[in-house]
Structures are given as structure tokens and as C-alpha cells.
């Protein structure tokens, strides 16, 4: 079931064009640098980290489908992480997009843009639900404490 929900969620995200918002990460980096002064090495690490997030976010629906496929393998943790990042960045990018629209008082555009990405929002929730329902391989820590053979 997690695979089917993840694939449906990813396809809905792709069809609605929901991504992580490329401009969001540049804005976040600029905002962070306005608060704190960092060394060039830290700036390089932050830039690389944000570039990776931007790359993952740009392929939101495809990333969710890839993570959903990984939920069926021995790499459940990685699959859950990938699904969370893909869906989470889509929701975060959409939130900041709406925030920008509402602060400019473009109400007609805002109402239309609330309706158009609805399948993508539903897809994000499907993907996150699939990630929560996925079960990993049993580990010794997950067994009952004190159980005797």
C-alpha cells in the first residue's frame, strides 16, 4: 500500500507542477546571512547544502516516486527520508509562494492558485501518509523487551 500511495502522490505532484521552489532557497540563504556572519568555508557548505535541496525539490514528484520504490527494499529509512524531503519541500515551496502572493494583495490570482495545485497538495499528503505507513526491517531494538526464547 505505501508504494501505491507514494506513486499516486508523486504523479499528482508531477501533474500539478509542484516543486520545492528554486527561489526559496536563495531567499533563505540571504536571510540567514543577514542574521549571522559566517566564514567562507561555512558559506560554501551552506551553499552546497541548499543546492542539493534545490535539486531534490525541483524533481519533487519524481523524488517521491523514487523514495516510494525504496520503501519496498531494505533501504526503508532512506526511502522515508527521500519521500519526506520531496513532499515536504513541495509543501514548503507552495507555502512561501502563497505568502508572496498574499502580501502583494493579488487576491484573484491567489484564489486561482489555491485551486490549481490542489492535486499536488493531495499528492504530498498521500506521499507523507505512505511514508508513515511504511515498515522497515525488524531490528533487535524493535523486538519485545525481555522476551525469552
Explain how this protein is built.
The protein has helices at 2-16, 22-35, 40-58, 60-70, 76-103, 107-115, 118-133. With 149 residues, the chain is an all-alpha fold.
How are the SSEs ordered, and which strands pair?
Elements: H1 2-16, H2 22-35, H3 40-58, H4 60-70, H5 76-103, H6 107-115, H7 118-133
Number of helices: 7
Shape: flat
- CA-based gyration radius: 19 Å
* Overall SS class: mainly alpha
As a percent range, the share of helical residues equals over 70%
Termini separation comes to: 33 Å
Strand content: under 5%
Question: What is the ordering of alpha helices and beta strands?
Answer: HHHHHHH
User: Biggest sheet, in brief?
Assistant: none
Mean pLDDT: 75
Salient structural properties:
7 helices, disordered C terminus, 0% strand, mainly alpha, 149 residues
Summarize the structure.
By secondary structure, this protein is mainly α.
Amino acid at each position: 500500500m505505501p508504494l501505491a500511495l507514494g506513486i499516486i502522490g508523486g504523479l499528482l505532484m508531477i501533474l500539478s507542477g509542484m516543486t520545492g521552489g528554486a527561489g526559496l532557497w536563495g531567499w533563505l540563504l540571504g536571510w540567514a546571512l543577514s542574521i549571522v556572519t559566517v566564514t567562507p568555508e561555512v558559506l560554501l557548505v551552506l551553499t552546497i547544502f541548499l543546492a542539493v535541496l534545490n535539486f531534490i525539490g525541483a524533481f519533487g514528484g519524481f523524488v517521491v516516486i523514487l523514495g516510494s520504490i525504496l520503501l519496498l527494499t531494505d533501504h526503508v529509512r532512506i526511502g522515508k527520508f527521500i519521500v519526506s524531503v520531496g513532499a515536504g519541500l513541495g509543501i514548503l515551496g507552495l507555502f512561501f509562494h502563497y505568502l508572496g502572493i498574499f502580501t502583494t494583495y493579488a487576491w484573484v490570482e491567489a484564489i486561482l492558485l489555491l485551486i490549481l495545485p490542489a492535486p499536488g497538495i493531495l499528492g504530498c499528503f498521500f506521499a507523507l501518509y505512505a511514508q508513515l505507513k511504511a515498515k522497515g526491517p525488524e531490528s533487535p531494538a524493535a523486538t519485545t523487551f525481555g522476551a525469552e526464547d
